[in-house]
Task: structure prediction
Amino acid sequence: MKMQFKIYRYNPDVDAKPYMQDCEVELEPTDKKLLDALVRLKVVDDTLSFRRSCREGVCGSDAMNINGKNGLACVTDVAGLKQPVEIRPLPGLPVIRDLIVDMTQFFKQYNSIKPYVINDTPPPSHERLQSPKDREELDGLYECILCACCSTSCPSFWWNPDKFVGPAGLLAAYRFIADTRDTATNERLDNLEDPYRLFRCHSIMNCVDVCPKHLNPTKAIGKIKELMVKRIA
Amino acid sequence: MANVAKRQFDAVIVGAGGAGMRAALQLSEAGLKTAVLSKVFPTRSHTVAAQGGISASLGNVQEDKWEWHMYDTVKGSDWLGDQDAIEFMCKTAPEAVIELEHFGMPFDRVESGRIYQRPFGGHTANFGEKPVQRACAAADRTGHALLHTLYQRNVRANTQFFVEWMALDLIRDADGDVVGVTALEMETGEVYVLHAKAVLFATGGAGRIYAASTNAFINTGDGLGMCARAGIPLEDMEFWQFHPTGVAGAGVLITEGVRGEGGILLNGNGERFMERYAPTLKDLAPRDFVSRCMALEVLEGRGAGKNKDHVLLKLDHLGPEVINHRLPSIREIAIKFAGVDPIKEPIPVIPTTHYQMGGIPTNYLGEVMVPKGDNPEVRVNGFYAAGECACASVHGANRLGTNSLLDLVVFGKSAGDSMIDFIKRERPVHKPLPENAADYSLSRIARLENQTGGEEVNDVRSAMQKTIQLRAGVFRNSENMALGVKEIAEVAERAKRTQIKDKSKVWNTARIEALELDNLIEAAVATMIAADARKESRGAHSHDDFQKRDDDNWMKHSLFFSHDRHLDYKPVHTKPLTVDYIPPKERTF
Ligand SMILES: Cc1cc2nc3c(=O)[nH]c(=O)nc-3n(C[C@H](O)[C@H](O)[C@H](O)COP(=O)(O)OP(=O)(O)OC[C@H]3O[C@@H](n4cnc5c(N)ncnc54)[C@H](O)[C@@H]3O)c2cc1C
Ligand code: SF4
Ligand code: SF4
Ligand code: FES
Result:
């Protein structure tokens, strides 16, 4: 099967500016995912650059904009993709080369929410106990793979990547607030009490729409907002 | 070395998977200036893909003892594991896992509030009597939970990561001591010399030497390649684990945890064939054993599907509740990569290359040990290894499921402690770098740059993968392996002439893949030669012409030296640290 592509290309070593390249590739029957097709394209043109690793949707390397929507190439079926398949780097982040973007800002925001359990009481010799029900509170939060599909589809993050934490970071913030082992809820809310860090989210839901792990940052953000309100009351 | 920039650290860690990050934490928290290099952002390391669990005899669900865990591990290793290292790992397991919990790892829980544990292959109570629930799990995303937790803890400790930096070569001085590495910054294409008092390799496995594998693209055995080129031997490379349940055709893994939760294997006739081969442990016998049984079923014409080339993993009888709660990602993988919903239909599976038991020779302190004169184990000053790239050797000829994640945190920590100790006591100041520290790496890059009329990287890599897949598979024989040795030598010759079209500096993935191929080739040659030489069947090495384990002649570790491709051997450690030796006996399940 032949497949047509339109791919965003930019190599700062040779290109004055980015351009869209038309190309075609002959797929084997075993090439089921978009990543398989890109790997095959790369055999023909080894200058095509993109990140990839696990090829099963858990490492978060190959997030890109596919026919206008952010997603992971390795779990996107080639069957059913409208052709030519238009592939661009994740929007809103500086492009380093081809489909490779600079994710510094994204990780900076993640780190800014203190993404680790804070608990100053000395740990017991066994586990810090947690009931199965309390543990369930973390489902839908801890599974994030930091692919940035969500944050780079969020208009508020595009405009203020340095000030707005963004959906991935806020989902992580709530993951720690929701953990019964974490004792820093107040401190975490203080950290987000700011016109930009949290409140730039206008519940547009783009993030939910694109998350390849079916997580719901908007809901987590809503919960944080609720806690803020409760705290004042 | 005129235009190569140098940077100095107390310690350099190559690899930010579970092993590298556990070690990093130790060093950062001790206040040492540490650089952690990774080809990918830390949470993208392949530890993230681990599914089923991490073993520890916590006894949260059923009575358990570390001595039983040790026995299972020795038996699982088919008596090739070093019993001092195995004792150390199994005894330390409970505190290592509790520590992860304290770091914030989101384990599943049992009613008492303690960590949930599930059964896994080869893990038993009371020295082989019956299966025991020893695998501590976070649903079927244990590796993800573990890796993210360790990354998060390192954020807290302010660990300095060099993300998307690829180490190229090990730097050894005239005494043979390790004093640093050369590395390529992918974004700029610049090569650096990183000067260190101690270096740890935690570069993961080389599963990509096979055509079909559960491993990620980045699992190219870089640590092995760097060692081989620097004169450090590779241990037990003939032992590769074939996981029974890779998705047929796709290679993606389906965790043994599925069988731990009650899933069963069926042949094309709908028979639960494992009952025939392993009456006690059935579907939960160790992996080498189950993989062989599956391969036999297919060979003897009892496979499933149109071409009778796979078997079926049935789990619909567990019910949607258990599947959605305990195995949610498995369901997703089956739907995405096998096109079946396991709530209704069985998953087509075949044995798939999964794990490298061999690697860089170390002791249980993470110190790299090589033969010198009559002494089979002399420390290489300043050099450490941990995780899948290392061979401690706790897994021997066959690893038990869930023992790798454990290996990462136990030996990541002990290697970190050994490094701290070494730096404080023996290496308070840096040893000088040799004059031409970067020359070798630069010449490799220059060769690639200037090659004309050469070989396509992709062609050579495919040829290597085809050879290893065909010649070093589940069942091996003399004739086939002899062919493999010849073929892989030819492929290695071709690899010396690889050529790339992309000559730019910024994020040149063609160059990275070519450099990775050099490492893969070292691992592949070591595998083929060590496999061909071992005239017995032990663990994952199943030799048709020598079907029995031969303890008199072959209870020994192989050591492969790359420069002249010769093999040496060293004895298995038969003396545990405190308990009695577990003598070899026949493995039945
Ligand atoms: C699909 C799957 C499921 C598994 N499930 C389980 C399980 O349930 N339980 C269990 O115990 N084990 C499991 N295993 C095995 C276990 O996950 C691995 O053995 C283990 O995670 C390896 O960890 P590591 O830290 O050694 O290496 P990795 O996690 O592979 O990390 C290697 C690191 O080294 C870096 N690196 C490599 N080369 C270079 C270089 N040249 N320069 C710079 N950095 C470099 C990489 O970027 C990466 O950061 C599973 C394995 C697979 C493939
Ligand atoms: S819901 Fe909030 S975070 Fe999500 S896309 Fe919209 S503005 Fe961004
Ligand atoms: S929330 Fe979803 S889309 Fe966003 S980074 Fe995490 S996994 Fe990716
Ligand atoms: S390659 Fe890992 S998520 Fe796609």
Notes: The two ends of chain A are 62 Å apart (CA to CA). Helices of chain A lie at 34-44, 104-112, 132-136, 155-159, 166-177, 185-192, 206-210, 217-232. The longest strand of chain A covers residues 2-9. The first helix of chain A runs from residue 34 to 44.
